[in-house]
Amino acid sequence: MFNLVLFGPPGSGKGTQSEKLIQQYGLIHLSTGDLLRKEMKAGTPLGNEAKSLIEKGQLVPDEVVVGMISSALDANAGANGFLFDGFPRTIAQAEALDRLLELKKTAIHKVLFLMVNEEELITRLVGRAKTSGRLDDADPDVQRKRQDVYKNETLPVAGYYQNQDKVERIEGEGSIDEIFDRLRQSIDKAMAEEA
Ligand code: AMP
C-alpha cells in the first residue's frame, strides 16, 4: 500500500493534479471537499450542516471529516493506496489519520507540498470561480478567509509531517504537465524506497 497526502493552499492545484495522479498510480482519491460537496448536493443533514461553514470559508468540524475518511477507508479495504486531497487540514485531523491508518497496519508514506505564491493563488481562484460554480470561489472575502484559515490551521500540518520526515516541497507553478512530471518523479522515488 502507498498512501500520499497532496498538500497546499486553496488554489495550489491539488484537485487537478489528483485526477492525473490517481490514473497514473491506481490510488483511491479521497477529497474531503468533494465528499462534502456531494453531501451538500444530496441535501443530507451532514451536507446541510457543512454548507454554511463552507460558504463562509470556515472549516467543517474535525469529527465530521474524520468520520467521512474513516468510512471511505473501510469501504476501500483492498485498495493499492490512497491519495488524500484537502485532508488533513488540522493537526487533530493528521493525528486521527495516523491512528486510523495504524489500525490498518499502514501509514502515510509521503506528503507532497505544492508551493505557489499568493498572488498566483488568487488569480487561479478568480479564474476557477468562473467555471466551478462554487460559491466559496466567487466571493473575494471568502477567498481571503480560506487563505487565512489555511495559514493559521492547516500550515502547521506541514510541520507535523516534517517532524516525521515525510514532506517534499514541489514547485507548483508552471504548466499542469510540468507540475505533474515533478510530482511523478518524487512519487516514483518514494515508491522505490518503500518497495
Ligand atoms: P476544498 O474543496 O478542499 O477546497 O474544500 C472546500 C471547503 O470544504 C473548505 O473550505 C472547508 O470549508 C471544507 N473542507 C474540506 N476539507 C476539509 C477538512 N479536511 N477539514 C475541514 N473542512 C474541510
Question: Could you characterize what this model shows?
Answer:
The mean pLDDT is 95. The chain is 63% helix and 12% strand. The protein is globular. It has helices at 14-25, 32-42, 45-56, 62-75, 91-103, 118-132, 135-138, 140-162, 176-194; strands at 4-7, 28-31, 82-85, 110-115, 167-171. The chain has 195 residues and is α/β, with parallel strands linked by helices. It is built from nine helices and five strands. It has one domain (4-190): P-loop containing nucleotide triphosphate hydrolases (Rossmann fold), CATH 3.40.50. It has a five-stranded parallel sheet, sandwiched between helices. Bound molecules: adenosine monophosphate (AMP). Adenosine monophosphate binds next to α2 and α3.
Q: Order of strands across the biggest sheet? A: 2-3-1-4-5
The set of bound ligands, ions and cofactors reads:
adenosine monophosphate
Residues in helices, as a percent range? 55-70%
Rg computed from alpha carbons, rounded to a whole number of angstroms: 16 Å
Provide the CATH architecture. 3-Layer(aba) Sandwich
**Integer average pLDDT:** 95
Quaternary organisation: single chain
Distance between the termini: 10 Å
The fold-level CATH name is: Rossmann fold
Number of helices: 9
Uncertain regions: pLDDT < 50 for 5+ in a row? none
- Count of distinct structural domains: 1
The number of E-state strands comes to: 5
Morphology = globular
**Content of β-strand:** 5-15%
CATH superfamily: P-loop containing nucleotide triphosphate hydrolases
CATH class: Alpha Beta
